[in-house]
Amino acid sequence: MGLSRRWNSALPVALVLLLMIQPLTVTVLAEEGGGENENGEGGESENSIAVLSVLSTHENPDNGHTYALLEAANYSVSAYNADLLGAALVTIDGASENQWVVSTFTSLNATPRNLWIGLSDEDKEGYWSWDSRQPSWYRNWARDEPTMLAGEDYSIISAIHQGEVQIGQWMDSVEQPENLTVHGLVEIGQGMDHAILLPLPGEEEEGGPLAQAVIEEVDSLTLNDAITIEARVMPYSIDGSQFIMMKGDYGWGMHLTDGVLHYANDYAIRNHPSSEVELFKNEWVHLAITVEAGIGGTFWLDGQPAGNISAGDAVIPDGDLGSNECYQSGEDCDEFYLGRQGAGCD
Ligand SMILES: [Ca+2]
Ligand SMILES: [Ca+2]
Ligand SMILES: [Ca+2]
Questions:
Q1: Ligand 1 centroid – CA 307 distance (Å)
Q2: What stretches in the chain show pLDDT beneath 70?
Q3: Ligand nearest to the CA of 98
Q4: d(CA 284, CA 302)
Q5: Of 81, 90, 110, 240, which sits 20 to 30 A from 154 (CA to CA)?
Q6: What confidence score (pLDDT) does residue 15 get?
Q7: Class of domain 203-338
Q8: Given this model, what pLDDT does residue 95 score?
Q9: Distance from the CA of 174 to the center of ligand 1, in angstroms?
Q10: How far apart are CA 309 and CA 313, in angstroms?
Q11: From ligand 2's centre to the CA of 120, what distance in Å?
């Protein structure tokens, strides 16, 4: 249950969905408020922060991104220098990227090099997010990591085998670990690896939805009267309805309608309960909905409660309504849809 720690284990199902509503041309530039990186290469230097040398760069053939190994420094200086390069500390999207990073950088020139990656819980303890703001949920923590000790808000790929930590595994660390030399690894390149571009309202007609995903045969997903659904999104429009996910044929799901998060629990959109908070355009937000059937539910925006779902609305429909021909043919409504309304079974 690591990913849903905040919702605690009382909720037996946690679907973690990795979405964005954003054109794929957006780069991995960090979006932190000040816009300091708009000038790209180090326009303004703060006297107190060192500019680090790049020791080595390599291109990852899997994604075409360039990775720059910085000289060793603490986390903040490393992250700042990633920003100077117009990028962010690396976002590890899966085992293959982790493996490539390990084999390319952790023993470069036969020197063991621990690596700062962009994963931090600096903003909110226990809530790990990437410096690039990419929605990757892949983790490769070593056994018993993250230990979450005071100040351990940053993540390291270990270059050495030590105790429970194997080479290539991750551990959380303080900003300036004692007796450990760590190099920042910067990932430079466009694209959100797990992004799903949802169509703007009205664009669906031209040759079908711009992007969607269907996960087939999720009948094995059994719910025990409670559910947590999550997504990280950046709306590029807050007009009309944009479905983020829906189970089967008018089953449970979430959508934005006019910039407000809704819980899909009924055939009619107008009956869907909604959060109290409106989203902003072009800003990342983490959305979550927790529902306990017959008891109630809560909308969450960036981990903060953002409205309640009444006991009467706290239903979790299976999505087997059967509004389509396939239902008569006896096929199951066992799909799960990302980026579109369900309302179908294949
Ligand atoms: Ca990556
Ligand atoms: Ca921490
Ligand atoms: Ca640790």
A1: 34
A2: 1-47, 135, 190-222, 322-334, 343-346
A3: 1
A4: 9
A5: 110
A6: 36
A7: mainly beta
A8: 93
A9: 23
A10: 6
A11: 7
CA 271 to chain centre: 29
Which residues have CB atoms below 5 A from the ion given as ligand 2? 121, 152-153
Residue with tokens 């105790």: 163
Q: How far apart are CA 187 and CA 76, in angstroms?
A: 16
Neighbours of 184 (CB within 10 A): 29
- Which one-letter DSSP state was computed for residue 40? -
What's the pLDDT at 8? 28
Taking the centre of ligand 2 as the mean of its atom positions, its distance from the CA of residue 269, in whole angstroms, is 40
The one-letter amino acid code at 53 reads S
Query: What would the DSSP string read from start to end of 67-117?
Result: EEEEEE--HHHHHHHHHHTTSEE----SHHHHHHHHHHHTTGGG---EEEE
Going from N- to C-terminal start, the domains of the chain cover 27-188, 203-338
Q: Give the Å distance between the CA of 227 and the centre of ligand 2.
A: 26
Q: DSSP letter string over 128-161?
A: -EETT--------BPTT-----TT--EEEE-SS-
User: What's at 66, amino acid-wise?
Assistant: T
- Residue 295 CA to residue 300 CA, distance in Å, equals 17
Determine which helix (DSSP H) or strand (DSSP E) holds 100, and give its type and residue range. helix 95-105
Q: What is the pLDDT of residues 217-231, one digit of tens each?
A: 666 666 779 998 988
Here the tokens at position 300 are: 């969450």
**150: CA distance to ligand 2 center in Å?**
7
Against a cut of 0.85, is the pTM above it? no
- Ligand 2 centroid to Cα of residue 166, in Å, is 21
Residue 259, both tokens: 């910039």
pLDDT tens readout for residues 78-97: 999 999 998 999 999 889 99
Q: Which ligand is nearest to the CA of 121?
A: 2
Q: Which helix (H) or strand (E) holds 95?
A: helix 95-105
State in Å: Cα 123 to ligand 2 middle: 9
pLDDT at 340: 76
Find the ligand nearest to 145 CA.
3
Tell me, in angstroms, the distance from the centre of ligand 2 to residue 109's CA.
32
* Distance of alpha carbon 222 from alpha carbon 324, whole angstroms: 23
Residue 120's closest CA among 109, 110, 108, 133? Answer: 133
- The correct CATH number of 27-188 out of 1.10.10.10, 3.10.100.10, 3.40.50.2020, 3.40.50.620 is 3.10.100.10
